[in-house]
Amino acid sequence: MNNIYLRLSVLVIIITLLHKIAPVPLKYPKTNISKNITEIYHGKVIEDKYRWLEDDNSKQTKAWVQKQNSFTDRYFRKIPFRNKIEKRLTELWNYPTLSMPFKKGEKIYFYKNDGLQNQSIFYVKNNIEDPDSLATVVIDPNKLSNDGTVALSGIYFSNDHKYLGYSISKSGSDWREFHVKDLSTGKNLNDRLTWIKFSGMAWSGDGFYYKTFPKPEQGKELSQINQNSRIFYHKLGTDQKNDKLIFFDPDNPKISAYASTTNDGRFLMIYRSKGTYGRSLMVKDLNMPESQFITIVDDYDSDIRIVDHINGKLIAITDRKSPKKRVVIIDPKYPKEGLWETIIPENNNVLTSVNMINNNLVAHYMVDIISEWIIFDLNGNIINKVNLPGPGISYGFGGENNQSISWYRFESLVHPPTIYVYDFTKNTSKIYYESKAKFEKEKYVMKQKFYTSKDGTRVPIFIAHNKELVLDGMRPTLLHGYGGFNISKKPYFNKTIPIILENGGVYAIASIRGGGEYGQEWHEAGMLDKKQNVFDDFIAGAQFLITEGYTTPERLAIRGGSNGGTLVGAVINQKPNLFRVAFPEVGVMDMLRYEKFTIGWAWAVEYGTVNDKNDFENLLSYSPLHNITDMSYPSVLVYTADHDDRVVPAHSFKYAAKLQKHQTSDDYPILIRIGTSTGHGAGKSTKKRIKEYAEKWAFMFYEMGLDI
């Protein structure tokens, strides 16, 4: 083992010296600059030299994209081991995977992928106990396109389990098409619904409720702002144009509505939100068609979700007056908050989900992010705690109240997913399906550590590496983060990470503020004018990895996507010498114009709005695009996608162009990869994902001066 590390160290020195002795000046594709394009915000004039790149349909932008991708291709051809990484990733990917099963009626449904299929296939079978029993294909999304770019993005069973509603996404876009399959014949009905976004199918009776947005202008399908949402009811066998409008509030176009129903279809819930956090709630008893909606929550200051109902009384999980969440019962006849009955009170750990199964409430908690399952009766008394195999992440326990079994999944950074079946009558678990991943988990370890941020806040970090790793301060290390939108970063197994671990590397996840790891207070500590806490936490995490002897700035890479892309862009502006490689992916990089595209306005509750002077000054203080200056940045590989209509690619286009202009080091390239026929991430084909990660990890090792 020591000889391996000695040879590795010698190679590091040689390659690094070659990089430094004879850097080849990079001739980036020319990017034109828009002149006299300015905006005035609260008296401050802001230039926007790359505004023209916002028009992703223009010939000029398309030519720029083609040239940038070609430039990136040429650079990657210099990396001798990229194909080797792609081959190993293909091996890592090529094993059968099974989703958690779930029960509908008397049948069991699940997804399965043979290994390298672009999209997983949706199956049904009758045998509950045997995971290898004969199954029948329900939907094979691989047959919906030749290149794997059409994905199955949601499934929604009718209350009587006779029909399967499903949605498809094309090229990764958030726009959905709805279809309905008759499960008795296996044939699709003629029902086809379009221009649907951020909606499920909420079944009741002989149809379902759903949300839609107005059809965008031609050519602006992926960029036009999404507002004026409407809730409709679609009756099976009818044309979408005849659907009944259920709810529309034209006076508040940016308050978005979402429809849901209880498992039996009795209650219709309409949630409304001004952004990504906080929602109001109205409920209607569909057993009384002429009745009016009952308002349960009329503000947008908290989160609430109806789990189901018991004899007409609603069970809800909420963080209202309980930032770590509790479970309450609400009587729609007496809906005032003061009359709610708490059955599972808030405690020191964050309650993330509750399901009602077998007349039990199955609650998932995060204990310093690690999963814990507790089973309660309907009065809130603890019945059992589920014994998990060790510290890790678990999710599942889906189902309906009339079933006595359910499934859950367990995994960690170094433990491939294992599926368990739980018997509520015996309160016991047993393995249902063990992962066949080609990863020797016994060789690796995951550790949870805590470090101190700039203001003294204690922040958790998960670290994975080979058990025999020598902490010489030179290990190639990838630090991942997000820090926003109440989203918790957890140590899930990722089949791309073994490339790093198998080559003497370290992988780490910092669970920084802005997420939901410790409840709503942790989230709020990284929102709005407190956003700098997120960057400080991530920087402190990087410094912790260095001081603990894992790595050095010359061997440290950072990665984040979406809001995490904002994080990466901000910290390399603030601490460029702390990192060697950076991956800002599908990031929100222009904080002054993010509200102008698709659903961006909904993020104002998280980031603030330029319409407010204090918010504007805060946004400008960290906006990745606006804080680029002439200096030596790390090697950066920006990633975006041509069909990303969540965070439009203009963010990354403008950011990469400006970063190339201001990078002062010829040693450290600024590259951008624009994925084709892909979106914000979901639904991407296996082939595209393997190619994407082969490029990323090859770039990381190469820029660190390593050979693998």
Description:
The chain has 708 residues and is of the alpha+beta class. 19% of the residues lie in helices and 33% in strands. The chain is built from eleven helices and 39 strands. The strands form nine sheets. The chain has an eight-stranded mixed β-sheet with strand order 32-33-35-34-36-37-38-39, sandwiched between helices. Strand 29 and strand 30 form a beta hairpin. The longest helix has 20 residues. The protein is globular. The two termini are 15 Å apart. About 3% of the residues have low confidence.
Bulk shape? globular
Distance between the termini: 15 Å
Number of strands: 39
**H/I helix tally:** 11
Secondary-structure blueprint:
Elements: H1 2-21, E1 38-41, E2 44-47, H2 59-76, H3 82-93, E3 97-98, E4 102-104, E5 107-113, E6 121-125, E7 136-139, E8 150-157, E9 163-170, E10 175-182, E11 187-197, E12 202-204, E13 207-212, E14 230-235, E15 244-248, E16 256-261, E17 267-273, E18 279-285, E19 294-297, E20 304-310, E21 313-318, E22 326-330, E23 341-344, E24 350-357, E25 360-367, E26 370-377, E27 382-385, E28 393-396, E29 405-412, E30 415-423, E31 428-434, E32 444-452, E33 458-466, E34 477-480, H4 498-501, E35 506-510, H5 520-524, H6 532-547, E36 556-561, H7 563-574, E37 581-585, H8 604-607, H9 613-622, E38 635-641, H10 650-662, E39 670-675, H11 686-703
Parallel strand pairs: 34-35, 34-36, 36-37, 37-38, 38-39
Antiparallel strand pairs: 1-2, 3-5, 4-5, 5-6, 6-7, 8-9, 9-10, 10-11, 12-13, 13-14, 14-15, 16-17, 17-18, 18-19, 20-21, 21-22, 22-23, 24-25, 25-26, 26-27, 28-29, 29-30, 30-31, 32-33, 33-35
Helix pairs in contact: 3-11
